[in-house]
Amino acid sequence: MKTIKHSYGADLDWVAPFAKQLEGKVNGNFIVVPDTLFKGSRYVLDCGDGIVAYYVDVTNNRDVNLIQKNISNDFIGIYYNLSEGEVKYSSSNFKHNVGRWQYNLLVIDSSLETNYFIKAGSKSYVLCIFIKKSMMASYAQKNNITLRDIDKITDPSKNTIIRFDRMSSESFHLIDDLRKLKVGGPVFDLNLTGTVHLLLSNFFKKMSSVRIIIQTVNESDLANIIAIQMFLINTIEDHFPTIKLMAHNANMSESKFKDLFKKITGKTPNTFFIENKLLKAKELLEGKQLTITQVSDRLNFTNNSYFASKFKEHFGIAPKIFVKQL
């Protein structure tokens, strides 16, 4: 396994040293790497306003351990990850799969060290957005978004920004459409910049709509919260477990558990559970093997009417109409 130690940033100072670590070089906006390690495109673009985009669409030809330890803690990284294959995010206390079918949206403070294990044969497709914390307030203001407690949120001594989530359907389609374009040149740069700003706008609007928990997160607590998220995903066909049970399993008080869960996912445990249950319902309906009633029963919704109302509330369309359009 090849180990690569590197850093990122919301400027371009990290690009040349990173290319060297990859045994490659910088050619314009491209990081050119030998095919023996990765085959595909690595592209970096300064999008202005303290924002840098790093676009990765490669096949991994070797087992790789990417260790990211940033020189500066003045930015956050937002990672939209549609990779396929074995890609794991790891810390000292836990290791979890990330990518298209797992956690595919990671928001990670630059003060945190990240560790990725990528298996040979995996296909990495990731759009990384790095934005300076000092620019977050002005960016939100420019886009008419009100962010409460922004000074505390971006103060490293008071808050560590961390979130593991699944991206919205809108975000998925934006990134999927970007992949259809030839990488490089004015047209791609324009589309990449536009995609980055749309994703950031959506992200900040989401931040403004929920109460941000001002609290640092230690590795042990983060590991326990992520373990509960995976527990909820793995029991998605069952009824919602009690907060008391989950808090006990996470070795936390109920109040601390609820606060940290919302900080890391942006959702309450119940909302996280029901939204993933609805995504599972959508997948089952798309498979055309089960009726609406069978899906509702399988996922333990109270009744068909409740299932239909929640489905329409989340996806904007009734299950019957959705099935007819398949």
From TrEMBL:
PROSITE patterns: HTH_ARAC_FAMILY_1, HTH_ARAC_FAMILY_2. InterPro entries: Homeodomain-like_sf, HTH_AraC, HTH_AraC-typ_CS. The keyword Transcription regulation applies. Residues 226-325 form the HTH araC/xylS-type domain. GO terms for molecular function: DNA-binding transcription factor activity; sequence-specific DNA binding. The keyword Transcription regulation applies. It comes from the Bacteria. SMART domains: HTH_ARAC. SUPFAM superfamilies: Homeodomain-like (SSF46689). It comes from Flavobacterium shii. Keywords: DNA-binding, Transcription, Transcription regulation. This is AraC family transcriptional regulator.
